[in-house]
Design goal:
Blueprint: H1 2-6, E1 33-37, E2 67-69, E3 80-82, E4 90-91, E5 97-101, H2 116-125, H3 137-141, E6 162-166, E7 169-173, H4 181-184, E8 213-219, E9 224-229, E10 247-251, H5 256-265, E11 273-274, H6 282-289, H7 292-295, E12 298-301, E13 305-311, H8 321-330, H9 333-339, E14 346-348, H10 375-384, E15 391-398, H11 407-418, E16 422-429, H12 431-438, E17 447-453, H13 460-467, H14 487-497, H15 502-517, E18 522-528, E19 530-533
Parallel strand pairs: 1-10, 1-11, 15-16
Antiparallel strand pairs: 2-3, 4-5, 5-7, 6-7, 8-9, 9-10, 12-19, 13-17, 13-18, 14-18
Length: 558
Amino acid sequence: MVLAVGAVACGPEDSGAKSAGSGASGTPQKGGTLSVLNNEAQTDFDPARLYTSGGGNVPSLVFRTLTTRKRASGAEGTKVVPDLATDTGRPNADATVWTYTLKDGLKYEDGSPITTADIKYGIERSFAAELSGGAPYLRDWLVGGAKYEGPYKDGGKGLDSIETPDAKTIVFHLNKPEGEFPFLATQTQFAPVPKAKDDGTKYEEHPVSSGPYKVVKNENDGEHLVLERNPNWSGANDPERKAYPDTIDVRSGLDQAVINQRLSASQGPDAAAVTTDTNLGPAELAKVSSDKQLAARVGTGHFGYTNYIAFNPNVKPFDNPKVRQAIAYAVDRTSAVNAVGGSSLAEPATTFLPNQKAFGYTPYDPFPAGASGNADKAKELLKEAGYADGLTVTLTHSNAKGGPKGPEVATALQDALKKAGITVKLQGLEGNDYNDTVASTKKEPGFFLRGWGADWPSGGPFLAPIFDGRQIVQDGANFNTGFLNDPSVNSEIDEINKLTDLAAAAPRWGALDKKIGEQAVVVPLFHPVYKRLVGKDVKNVVISDWTGVLDISQVAVK
């Protein structure tokens, strides 16, 4: 989910395009400096603390992992491929044991060899409280992971569930079958860390590189990062990263409007610049679209993310399924899409899973409301629920203007539901207050706006956190906001997780999405579309459907 906020889309309109804009023609060459202009700083530059998968972003230039994503545009980029390992992993019969072998000739920036002991140690240190923040799956999946506190407290014992019989072999023992373990192995927690170079929370200042670039400057906790070539990296054992520029200069803390202005003007160093976190807004997009040269430099990307209405069935009247169904029929998705900038920036959604094959997307609409809602059907259901004269409810939303959970979307829903006899009062909350309220089982409202993005392109990390009853968290951040605890849903999640054939698993995730959707514990609204500018001299723009982020490892500036 964190990734959904920070690593959104950037790429060419034609997902197979090899360049962006008229100034970026020609064969990509090595050399030059790529500038990255960002709003948010690249904080916590430690592989244990980062929450990012698949590669294509700044950390993947420094940290290699056991697996990564295929660096290709569109759906082809949703495939997991080997990185440090020779393959994507060898499971036992029930996918509870996974074995990997390292490639030959792997080296750190200082020329020392990368070993499986380093990968084991890198994973173990991610369990330390002071290095928390990364993906939580290992604590749940690894045998003994739930109670492990990291290498600084284990007296050198380590995690028995990670075995390294030799310098090139590593074996993982899991609590349960996990056919998607190769996806998890793309997370930065699987990056090697040499124990002798680990200095705890200070490691982020100069992490030891296993990728094509090393950190030579890290100012103000990631506000200014400078990366230069790692002389001991070899493209011969890393076919995914092209590593064209000599230097990557990342500057953050910039106003988003300023970023887009600089990319638009493309003066001086900004001609060879990109952004990994700033989209074009509706007004900016309208301006850019009227200029053919600028429009040629606008990339379109899709990250698997869904914005939706969430219900708390423990709060009346949302305990009545017919009330939830009535709201589903009353929703005007066209007005919701328009509230976030129109069809160029969002696509209407009737499924919880994003409309990409990798997720197992299966088209369905259990409560067909059409493009602008079905008020008559909604009124019919309200009458059956005992609310023939209508009802009044409160919708909780974020106060962040222009956002997918903000007042504009809330007002659009308010207007649509009014046609069905539902009076909606709006309750806006500020950022942290909003997040804390909707994620608390004790404070969760009955009717609110929510969003979810997957950690990798599969139905598993999309459906399980939101609908698996065993993942309801009573005393922490809870994402199963509908408190769904259906044994048949839980069981099917377990059965699909046993599959190592991900192509076979995908349609089963789609069928499960349909089954859950019929219970109306959420109402999908829209999937975001991202639009971004690149500098006029940027070449070889690649954007995949994994993260929707421009892949820095492919970009050239000469």
